[in-house]
């Protein structure tokens, strides 16, 4: 059996028909606190694959600080990302959390069975960094 494809996108792209994901792909949300309208854009949500609450909180606080210093939204987002060491902290979470490891194993099994998946969250990665691209890379590395 051929392995399924793995893609990622953001919720607004789905809502505005701009998402470049296979039509047959299951849209898997990867956010801790989805809004009601987020649920309408995805087939399921795996909150355990969202960044841990303490990392999100420190990131958001730093992002607000950067905005107060005059940075634009994207600039503040990306500067805060670097300052809190977001990528390393999120990768450590994916490696160390049993909940995240179980969810990753489940997604990997589904991909191995031929199901195509699209990871979905809120951020447009053309301008901002996002955990879902790290998660996609993590899944691809785990199966390489």
TrEMBL record:
**Span of domain DUF488:** 20-142
> What protein am I looking at?
DUF488 domain-containing protein
